[in-house]
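Summary for the lay section of the report: proteins are chains of building blocks that fold into shapes. Here we show the chain for Diacylglycerol kinase and then a coded description of the shape we predicted for it.
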Amino acid sequence: MSPFKGQVGVRRVLNAAGYSLAGLRAAYTGEAAFRQLLWLNLLLVPLALYLPVSRGERALLVAVCLLALIVELLNSALEAAVDRISLERHPLSKNAKDMGSAAQFCALTLIAAVWAIVLLG
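The coded shape description reads as follows.
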């Protein structure tokens, strides 16, 4: 059992919220890609709420934007973990980082595809 898993109940929820906010703060201050994607979301999400589309389409437009933020957070976490292990060049480290980047590329492609399908019919 991990020594970091000691809290239960409301204290655990409060701790988790604090860790989440710290992670968002770290991503915003340390990751340019996260900042850019966040600003893109601050443009696209309100636009999705304003557009004359169905509720389902609106939910889909917002969901793909938020999904890209989630993928970027996971990609940044993966890169940090790989860098923590070693900064030396290694094929497995490169593969891990490249796959994280590919996941983010797929998420951004999904945004473009969903928005195009919804807006262009």
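Put simply, here is one thing we learned. The mean pLDDT is 95.
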